[in-house]
Design goal:
The complex is a heterotrimer of chains A (335), B (284) and C (324). Chain A has 335 residues and is of the alpha/beta class. Chain A has helices at residues 49-57, 83-89, 101-104, 111-122, 128-141, 147-150, 160-173, 190-206, 218-224, 242-247, 252-260, 322-330, and strands at 7-18, 21-33, 38-42, 64-73, 76-77, 94-97, 178-182, 210-215, 227-232, 235-241, 309-310, 316-317. In chain A, 47% of the residues are buried. With 324 residues, chain C is an alpha/beta fold. In chain C, helix 7 (183-200) links the parallel strand 7 and strand 8 (203-207). Classes of the chains: A alpha/beta (335), B mainly alpha (284), C alpha/beta (324).
Amino acid sequence: MSPNPLVSIRQLKLEALTARGTAHILRGIDLDIGKGRIVGVVGESGSGKSSLAACLLRLLPANVSRLDGEILFDGVDLVALREPAMNAYRGARIAMIFQDPMTALNPLFTVGTHLRDVLRRRHPGMARDEARRRSVAALSSVGFADAPLHVDSYPHQLSGGMRQRVMIAMALLVEPDLLLADEPTTALDATVEAQIVSLLENLRRTFSGSIVFISHHLGLVAQLCDDLCVMYGGTIVESGPVADVLGGPRHPYTRALLACELEDEAGGGRLVSIPGEVPDPVEMRDACVFAPRCPHVREACLAGMPALRDAGPGRRAACVRWEEVEFELSKPSQR
Amino acid sequence: MTVLRTGWTILRRVCATVTGATGLGIVVVVLIAALFAPWVSTADPDKLDVMNRFSAPSLAHWLGTDHLGRDLYSRLVHGATIALAVALSAIAVALSVGTLLGVAAAYLPPRLERLVLIVFDVIASFPSMVLALAIVAVFGPSTTIVIMIAGITLMPHFGRVARGQVLALKSAPFLEAERILGASFGRIVGYHILPNIIGPLVILASMDIPVVITIEAGLSFLGLGVRPPLASWGTLIQDGYQFLSESWVPVVVASSALAIATLGFTLFGEALRDAVDPRIRQEH
Amino acid sequence: MIVGATRPAPLVEFAGVSVVFDGRVRALDDVTLAVGKGEIVGLVGESGSGKSTLCRVLVGLTQPSSGTVKVGDRTVGEQLAQAPLAFRRRIQLLLQDAVASLSPRMTIGRTLEEPIAIHALPRAGARLELDGILKRLGLSNDVLAKFPHQISGGQARRVGLARALVMRPEIIVADEPTAGLDVSVQGELLNLLLDLQRDFGLTYLLVSHNLNVIRRVTERTAVMYLGQIVEDARTNELFATPAHPYSAALLSTNPAVDPKRRVHPIVLQGEIPSAVNPPAGCRFHTRCPVAQPKCTSDPPLLLPLDGGRRVRCHFPFSLAPRRH
């Protein structure tokens, strides 16, 4: 996608052992994350989007049986790194904001302690006063009106929105090259979510790193992100600039997903859904992962997993028939 | 059907660890001895043969004889029956009364609930031996008394666990859903609460078996438990202890049986507790 | 002279309902709401708005501290006291966590028989009815032998729905019916709800934080804030021109995929106040971008506007969402 991406993921495969067999969570991911870009990753349950973030940090659960492929972070393959070397990246060059602000902070430590820990990891030996000053400044920058007061608060004294802001402040203090945000607003009330979204938008002016924004909310991604990557069943089915992809999807799944978004004013018409179910990660078939539910499926689709192919400037889609389908849909329907 | 499958999965997990398998093995041996005593023993445990007292282990008497010439091995086997019979009866009493009170406590108004909890605390803090002595002093020693004492002693633990489980469940969505359907209180308790709290209580019960075996043995040792001619391990130890100067075999044999059985049930109970885990749910 | 037809009496009527917990937390404050037979009414609001409490009061799980709730022509309290089972058959609540609303150690089949047993419905007829409902909801027979933790969220929702429908209720209260469902399957469930409403003449009260669902499915929507209804209007009018500043802000928070539909989000300052100590005057004034001095001291009443709308605001229509 971009000429000199910060992160270049090639053929990333992730498998885990479950009681029912081996689950193929990621089935060969190819993705570029450009420098300074905000990349949205959308997908439904079972798409593997959260696992992708976990892979970038290499914080994987114990039952993982296989991690293959390449994650080139500024030239270094994270998959091949030994644990101590990988750990040097976490909290230093890669930071993460989690979904549930309620449990992401340690209830025994004040906000100030959390922030100080982050600072000390980045700048070992930082003096207490300096750390406090920078913590207060960080809290102000994420919208705390009374930062000196809140720096001494405990997590349980803060609301969900405030805790999420603390997490964002912590992530920013890391001054990471890559910020991962896994559904950071899903657990929040709508008006509080709007505040966090506004904060994230303003971040673009001050934060120069790349952001990976994982969400199931297409509208949010449309508003916040530069690039979009649509995941389904452990694969990326489409990627490209967000306005282009959402304005003119090339993959049947993206198209179907957009149709399901209940945005049409016309109430009374039948609501659209995609028949069938998301694929079971334990069953892996060598065919297009969306084939069982695709309205445009043909023989060719069952021959093997389609690779991501070019589908326009900076765009890719994993559909062997995307051009034919485009053509079919552009014909005026004969009634 | 699924109950059987779950049971089999649990059993497999118990056997997966060395301690679990050992415990299970010992439990099975004790169970066989207890259930099939008349067939497993080699002789009539009450048959006197004073001429043959303290004989060494031989083919006729695998562990020798006691001070009255009775076959030690057979007495040991019958002792297992007593140990298990008392244990299971006492636990049945403690489990049922405890669960009843525990469930009630979770739903009673605060004052009455406190009363129930005070009863639990009083019983729990009372030294069981003193309680035993008091009861035996009034009613005389017997197997039923032992069961009663053990039952009363264990009851508060079951009660508290049951109450805790019910309190945790009280706000569960499915209970609200049943209320909205119009289910009566009795129906909710019987069909929806009890089946969901019985699991931990059964585990607790299995871990209390060695406790009761020990209580019973202790009381019988003091002469406050089962009456002759019934021979519990406690009585065997007492008899052997009296004649320790003449032979060390009876004491050692009976104490070993007690120790091994207690160990076996403890190991099994703990392995069971570890095996029954929410993890099991993922296996379906 | 045109004689206007008298409006039929509402099926559900909240009159000045307040719920206070522990003497401190005002979960509901003087709520007045009417739902007509066959209507689909949406309820939106954030944490602390009181929408869950409202639903619980309606189905009789929570007692109002003051005010009355009528279903039909008698209050909920009366019906629960005199004919509780009949009342339960009239109105059902679908809980938010569908899987957790099913008894974990009972098979689905057994759970579905609960209403039949509780209400002593004639077995043969009820079984037939249940079979028909299951087919209608797209639940195959092999789901009957499964346990709640073995079925998907979507299936669990439909099981909950089947369990409610067996009793032929008049009113269904659905608490977040699409929460946890993927976008690609929520349409199916909503279509189902709409079909059932049409075929059985059901009345719905739908609580959702998903504004798209509310807009597509409901006819009328009530917006709640801190235990009060702040606006009650026909859904398309509400979304087109919200009257209350909170409604305007809330409706602007839903980012649209289609850039043509996007509005500038109105970002409110501050946090949602606690229900223990609500702000004086208008409860919303602490976060309202267009608050006036009057709002800090004078609590507004829920007053009717033209077109059957009610708003609780001294200066309605002062905040309008701006399109891109």
